[in-house]
Amino acid sequence: MIHSTLPRTARRTRARRASRILLALAAMAALLGVDVPDAAARPPLGVTAQALPGATVNRVGALFAGGQEGGHFCTAAVVHSEDGDVIATAAHCLENPGTILFAPGYRDGRAPYGFWKLTGTHVAPGWTDGQDPDDDIAFVTVAPVDGDGPAGAVEDLVGGFPVAAEQPDDAKATVIGYPRTLEAPLRCANATSLLSGTQRRIDCPDLTGGTSGSPWLVNGALAGVLGGYEGGGSVPEISYSAVLGDRALELYEEARS
After folding, report:
1. pLDDT tens track for 64-107
2. What φ, ψ does residue 9 adopt, rounded to 5°?
């Protein structure tokens, strides 16, 4: 173990400075509505742990089949739009969109921001015609369920992620998603790599069924969703996302306009 050789007064001064910096970061985060970068509260790269509530995590929600009683089966996230009503998920999660509800920030049986019904889906022809894994992404408009939760747009309540394409091959991504067997989201960050020119891979354990559609966040922007090759992965230790390209961006523009 290495002990500090600084005088005690110098160490105290440095500790006070560090404390002031953290307080300033916390105040700034409160004003901007973002998470404080607390390294101690986040797992190391490649380790999956429960995602603590916060501005980023609250933008991610569970997709339910026919209401809370039907159980959650996929994940989605709010993305920025002019009307504040767009979410992103995997196209393969939308076989029966008329019965699906979205619950942002869902945790331990509670939906603090209410349930939201799907009002319009935007999926590439490559998926609808042939389930092309390179088109396994969808942008969906939502509206509050009548009489449920607060009024207004979902983005007004939790904020929305920007959408960013053309990420570096080894970009570090954070994945946040809801396994079907858990009542709270998991979070894992790691460097990504390209399986092919159209599919991206990340090594993160325990991302089991239900995490399909989970956002892949790079520098706070949505750079993909869990899905694509093998439906997002055939083993929980390795997950995939279609690379966001021109077709995905066209869908996004359609949904948010």
Report:
1. 998 788 899 999 999 999 999 999 999 999 999 999 999 999 99
2. -65, -35
Report residue 193 as tokens: 């790599």
- Listed in sequence order, the residues at least 6 apart from 134 whose beta carbon sits closer than 8 Å to its beta carbon are 126, 198, 199, 228, 242, 243, 245
Both tokens of 89, joined, read: 């998920």
**pTM reported for the whole predicted model:** 0.83
At residue 124, what is the residue type? A
- Hey, how many other C-beta atoms are within 10 angstroms of the C-beta on 122? 20
Asked whether 212 and 233 are in contact (CB, 8 A), the reply is no
For residue 81, give Cα distances in angstroms to 38, 56, 116, 158, 194.
Answer: 29, 17, 16, 13, 29
What is the distance between the terminal CA atoms of the chain, rounded to a whole angstrom?
Answer: 58
Contact between 205 and 236 (Cβ < 8 Å): yes
Distance between CA atoms of residues 27 and 8, nearest Å? 29
Fill in the amino acid letter for 98.
Answer: G
Q: Is the pLDDT of residue 41 over 70?
A: no
Helices (H) then strands (E): counts for the chain: 5, 13
> Looking up tokens 């929600």, which residue turns up?
61
- Contact (Cβ atoms closer than 8 angstroms) between residue 137 and residue 88: yes
199-256 pLDDT, tens digit per residue, is 999 999 999 999 999 999 999 999 999 999 999 999 999 999 999 999 999 999 999 9
